[in-house]
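User: Hi! I'm working on a homework problem where we have to compare a predicted structure to a textbook description. Could you give me the structure for the chain below?
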Amino acid sequence: MSNLSDVIGGANLYGGSSYSFVADRFNVSHSAIYFNSGYLQVPSGVYFSDDFTILVWIKLHSYGKWQRIIDFGNGDPTGLPMDNVFFGMSAETAYLNINTVDGTNKNDFDDKTTALKLNEWYHVGYVLQGYTGTIYVNGISVSSGYQNHPNDVTRNNNFIGKSWYSSDALADATYDELKIYNDALRQSYIVKEYNRKP
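Assistant: Happy to help. Predicted structure tokens:
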């Protein structure tokens, strides 16, 4: 990675702070993004409207309460999240959390089985199929539960590494190959992504 562009959709990332290009898990220089309590912003768009999948390689450098991988959504006049989809760390900091907000109706769950260690690469993913969400770590399904289905709306406040809530931690992590699919990928494909070489 040498620039901040969406290879498929062509949406250029912008704004943000405290990020830099670093080596990825294969030690290829300038191929991952390190956030030092930082974030990037993603342009407005309809990123979620039906089943979807989020995949990313992540290396945490410190634990931060509700630290985000992504948080895409809108806000209502009272400042509450609206139509947000966020994937990141839970309040317990070492576990993954997913939250899909249908309008302002929040529904989330944590994976309480797999604590992510600091300074180690993990391939993590989330798949929503119907109203069932499944979290994956290194190609393995580790947790699943009921999840709201996202509304088919344009989301205007979209962040990588930053929460809608200002009180939540900014990312202190390195991310690589962040991918969002408008389909529920099969586990065999997720395993293939996990095992993919440069």
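For your comparison, note the following. The CA atoms of residues 79 and 165 lie 9 Å apart. The chain has a mean pLDDT of 90. Good luck with the assignment!
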